[in-house]
Amino acid sequence: MEAAVLAEQALLGALLLRPRHLASTVDWLETGHFYLPHHAALYVAMRQLADEGHPALTSECSSDQGLDWLKRATAIATEEAPGLTPWHAHALVNICPQPDHATTYGRMVLAGYTRRTIAEHAQRLASTARSTKDLARQAEAVAAQADALAGLLNELACHWRAHPGATPRRVSPPPLHELSPDDQRHADEQAFLSAATTRPGALKDIRPYLTPEDFAHPLHRELYRCLTALHHRSDPIDPVTLVWEAQHRGVLVGITPETVLTICAHSGNDPTYWATRLLDHAVLSTAATTAEHVKRAAADPTIAPHRLIAVSRRALGDLTAVRLRRHQAHHGSPSPPEHRARPPARHPARQLPPGTSHGNPSGPGPSTPGIPVSRSVLAPWRR
Fold first, then answer.
1. Distance from C-alpha of 267 to C-alpha of 197, rounded to nearest angstrom
2. pTM for this entry
3. 179 pLDDT more than 70
C-alpha cells in the first residue's frame, strides 16, 4: 500500500470519528487532492454535511450523532462511488490510529497530490517532446506544456512554504542521448555548418542566440566553436581555415581533415534557417531532459514538497533559457515566457494550519525571491 493512500484512509477515518476536525482541513484541502475516487466522494459527502450544519460538528457531539454522521456520509458518497459500502467506512475508522492527527494526515494527502501532479505534468512534457509532429509546431507544443508545468508549480507554491536557507537537493540529470548517424538532428547540424562556412557573414546575427550547447554531436559542437572563434577574430572562413582552427584546438583527435571538409562542403543553404531548426531541436531535447529530471525528483520520496517545487523550477530554468534564445531567433528580441512575467498569485483567504516541521503547508508563501538590481545598473549616469 502506498503511503499517500494510507494517509487518505487515516484522514477519512479521523474525520468520521471526530467530525469537528473537518474545520481544520476544509479551507485548504480540496476534493481533487485525493488519489482514490471513492475517498474523494466520501470527503465531498462530509463537506456537504458540514455545509448543512450537521450537529456532529460540535465539540459536544453525542454517540448517536456521530453514528448518524458516519451513516449519512457513507450514503451520500455511495451515490457517486457505488463501490463504497458501510463496511468500507468502518474499515477507515479502524485504520486511523489517532483522530486528533487529522491535520497532519491532511498535509500528507496534499503532499501526495503535489508529487503526483508534478510527475503527471512532467510526463506530458516528455511525451510532447518525443512526438513526431512538425519540428516548429512540436517546439511550440513543448513551450505550452512547459508553461502549464510552471503554472502548476506557482499554484502549488502557495500551499508550501520554503524553509529559510533551504537549498534544493541536487538530483542528477538523466544521461544525454547519443545521436545515430542517420538522425535528423545530425543532418540538420551538418547542413548548418556547411551553410555557415559558405556564408560566414550570417554568423554576426546567429551568434547571439545559437550556442555550442545547442549541438548534440560533439564534433559539430566543436566545429561551431571554431567557426565563432574565426568570426570573432575577423579571420577568413572557409573549409581549409576551419580545418586549421580545428587542428589548433585539438579537435582532430581521431578525426581526419577529410571528415571536416565533407561536413563543411560548399552549400547554397541559408544558415539562419538551419540555425532556427537547431534551436527547435534544442528546445525538444532540453524539454525531454527537463521532464526526466522532474520525474526523477517527483519519484524520490525523500524530497519534501517545497524542495520538489524548487528543484522543478530550476530544471525549467534551463528550458526557459533555450526558449528565450529561440524567440530571439524568430522575432529578433528575447521575450520571457508569460509565466515568468508575474509572481504566483496569492490567496489571503486561505488559512492553512501553522507548523514548522518538515514540509508543512503554511498558507500562501512568497514567490521565489527576485534578483537584486544594483543601483549602478539603474543609474549609470551617477558614476
1. 8
2. 0.76
3. no
